[in-house]
Amino acid sequence: xxxxxxxxxxxxxxxxxxxxxxxxxxxxxxxxxxxxxxxxxxxxxxxxxxxxxxxxxxxxxxxxxxxxxxxxxxxxxxxxxxxxxxxxxxxxxxxxxxxxxxxxxxxxxxxxxxxxxxxxxxxxxxxxxxxxxxxxxxxxxxxxxxxxxxxxxxxxxxxxxxxxxxxxxxxxxxxxxxxxxxxxxxxxxxxxxxxxxxxxxxxxxxxxxxxxxxxxxxxxxxxxxxxxxxxxxxxxxxxxxxxxxxxxxxxxxxxxxxxxxxxxxxxxxxxxxxxxxxxxxxxxxxxxxxxxxxxxxxxxxxxxxxxxxxxxxxxxxxxxxxxxxxxxxxxxxxxxxxxxxxxxxxxxxxxxxxxxxxxxxxxxxxxxxx
Length: 370
Description:
Elements: E1 7-9, E2 14-18, H1 24-50, H2 54-66, H3 75-99, H4 107-124, H5 131-160, H6 164-186, H7 210-229, H8 231-241, H9 243-248, H10 253-280, H11 291-301, H12 306-329, H13 335-356, E3 357-361, E4 367-369
Antiparallel strand pairs: 1-4, 2-3
């Protein structure tokens, strides 16, 4: 009888296993605990670096975000809400595409192109058109510009199956150079265009941010209804789950991809309009400030739910502004704020990982096979 060779093999030290559906209350309890821990760590690190007490650190953070709110001064509060509105609008714009598993990393460029359209209208048409007509032209051209910049990679994805991540990233660089060239032309060779007096959104009660905030609030509600209750929202979900299943039940996948990216780009264009006509009254290559990439995390951490995204965006903006104030008072480098925000986002991403997956370590005894 032939000898049998018995070989042993070692299991991996650990392997990742997808969890069964966790009860919603338990998942949200974990998320809430993570947020509390993250804020505690940020306060602790900030206190250690600035040599202030924990309470003093958070007092500085709150004053940096809300200012003298208890004295009836609401300027800082409105600025805080404005920052939330811009980041949230970008996150809302990305959500339909991401839910469809179209990885749109081009929000930055789409918002810049959406901002280029109004500044051109404000400079070229501002003195010639009545104010209501000018505002309508600004809104329409912003939406169209953003939609065009979003639909270009969608067409190539739908018809030629190109990599949408790389395509949209490259479109960002093209948009940045177009803006840089236009600013060079209209700025007389400098890197800035002086604020334009035509076509700016009106202030409401001496508040320049009110219209921006209201517009984004309306978009939030509409996007929730669109994704959850509309036929198109259902088609986006099906295409995201499986394109083969979508084709089997009669959904035109190419049409859904193109339509969804038109919507995504158009909303990015609205963000650019809010920045140019509602806030800065000018444009430069840093007008969006990299928020298009932060918006990706806001959309994902918000579970593609617009109302949850409001909460996540408010937390991140609070940290960014508050820790910046702490850094300023302690004469620290401005990157300290970004480091703390990055730490919090890392903890939240880790939290989502452990909600959806568990780590199984190997057993002590070895397996044998003949």
